Amino acid sequence: MKNNYYRKALLVVKMGLFLVMSSCELVEYSPYQVKLPDSEKDLNRKNAEKIAALNLKPTDTLRIALISDTQRFYDETEDFVQAINQRTEQKGKKIHFVLHGGDISDFGLLEEYRWQHEILKKLKMPYMVVLGNHDCVANGDKVYAHMYGPFEQVYQFARNRFILMNTNTMEFTEDIVRLDFLENNLRDTKNYDNVFVLAHVSPFDEDYDKQKEEPFARLIRQYQAYPIHGHKHTHKISQPYNDGVNYMIIGSVSNRKYVVLTIVGKKVSHELINY
């Protein structure tokens, strides 16, 4: 299936105008209304339960595919799903789950979220999504909350902890980078071997709250976490603070690349894959 994104977006607008103007039918419609069937609600938690059901042991090899910024790139996302499904069928290349670095939508539209989910649910493994800045446009943050859950989430599989948090400071008037949440989930080091912090906007990005940059980087450094971000659309690994911590930017699927993160005990490696 090839999705014509702009045709679909126009259709959504026309439908909204039709409902608003249909006064003779006494239709009440709100652009902020979010109605989802149960099958489309709380997907991160549901998929985390599927990952937990794998009963991974700390000595097992864990492989995670990383993508980000799928937004309007529907064909590229479909091709990713096909490529990763084929890869996971190969001996020694099983992918246990997929992490999405945010911007699953472009304009925060409910239908955009649904179009992406219709593609990603074809994965042969679970997937989870962190909130991106485009996902917050209009009432997209409410859609995310219904479809994927709270803006801050924590999951642990074997002795690998995954912290998902909201760093989209340009889209909110309130203070949303919750460093207390981050530290509370980092400090119990005896309960995990590796900890990964997935947040769409990196602390060194111009769209980040500069008052929170140094404290965020300090916590990452102090607890030897692995920071993973999206937003910039180009894959890159760097040490912006010259402190020995590698920050990973996941490129957009528009580049037709994804990252495979491989974890064996306390050893973490990655590979950039073209598809």
TrEMBL record:
Molecular functions (GO terms): hydrolase activity
Pfam families: Metallophos (PF00149)
Superkingdom of source: Bacteria
Segments forming domain Calcineurin-like phosphoesterase: 62-234
The protein's name: Metallophosphoesterase
Species: Adhaeribacter rhizoryzae
